[in-house]
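Action item from last week, closing it out:
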Amino acid sequence: MPVRGARRAAWRRWLAYILAAAGAFYLFCAASLVLLRWVDPPTTAVHIQRRLEAALSARPYRKQYRFVPLSGISPHLRHAVVAAEDARFLHHHGVDWIELRKIIEEEWERGRFRGGSTITQQLIKNLFLTTRGSVVRKAYEFALAPVAELALPKRRILELYLNVIEWGPGVYGAEAAARYYYRVPAARLNREQAARLAAVLPAPLRRRPGRMHERSAEILERMAQMGW
């Protein structure tokens, strides 16, 4: 009994430590989101993840990242990304329960679960978490998305998202992506280029804009349907 009791006490202590660490990380993220209303992030968790992965595999790595204001990003790209990634972005509060319910109903019989993350949730993932899928990551995305919506206006959320997301190996943000793929600043991207860039976002390390013919056509059609 004393040994069993000691084990239980040890487990309780470890559980308390884990919960305390999880709570502290949540508060850190929440405070950072408030600060991000005025401060542009110099890096993100996903940026750091990719650098570590390259170092561990001894691969060359060159980071391309330049933060630009939303006014310095083509409206075509803003519209294309919203149409492709989160059509109800302007109408939800961080979690799109309508879209999530639709996805669950569609995928339940297939025995798998796809996507469903809003732009706000994807921003949370990029800023503080990693690309590794897990229940813990999803829990933080759901818990922090409403905080982000309270702390940041929609325009700032979109600005942050377009500037930090991954668009290729070592390529982060709209400005770096526009210059890397099309040799133009983000402000000068045309409609076709914007749709192709938006088409690579679900898998930026595998997809390339020049190959995304069908997906970019779908995005252009959605943009037209949304009045863009």
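Closing note: The chain has two domains: 1-35, 36-225.
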